[in-house]
Design goal:
Strands 2-1-3-4 form a 4-stranded mixed beta sheet, sandwiched between helices. A hairpin with a 2-residue loop joins strand 3 and strand 4. The longest helix is centred in the N-terminal third of the chain and has 12 residues. It is of the alpha+beta class and 118 residues long.
Length: 118
């Protein structure tokens, strides 16, 4: 079963949820603000995604901007970045689609079609 990790008020998350529902793809919904990903989960997802760790940050979020992470991230280790992401779900780019060794960050329909076979 796919895990759909989102922030329900996010318009991109709403579009992604509608896409999953329209394609009748079963998933388990998880509100990232109520149930923040753990350090262990983020580490696994990062490794499975093949993406640079910086892609997991919600760069348009208020928290990201107020913490001035644009200038701080380049000097941080992967461990420090993962710990930071695990500290607050609002720092994590969303939605996340996780399942069977595949991890998608953000909503790009062609990638989601490829992973879900729809």
């Amino acid at each position: 079963m796919l895990q759909f990790i989102c922030y329900p008020k996010c318009t991109t998350c709403q579009k992604a949820k509608k896409w999953l529902d329209d394609h009748r793809i079963p998933y388990e919904l998880r509100d990232i603000k109520l149930e923040n990903p753990t350090l262990e989960e983020l580490t696994q997802w990062y490794q499975a995604s093949g993406l640079p760790l910086r892609k997991f940050f919600n760069t348009s979020g208020l928290l990201y901007k107020s913490m001035e992470l644009k200038t701080k991230l380049p000097a941080m280790t992967d461990g420090e970045m993962l710990a930071l992401l695990a500290s607050d779900g609002m720092l994590v780019k969303r939605p996340l689609l996780v399942g069977d060794g595949a991890v998608l960050v953000g909503f790009k329909e062609p990638q989601w079609e490829e992973i879900t076979g729809r």
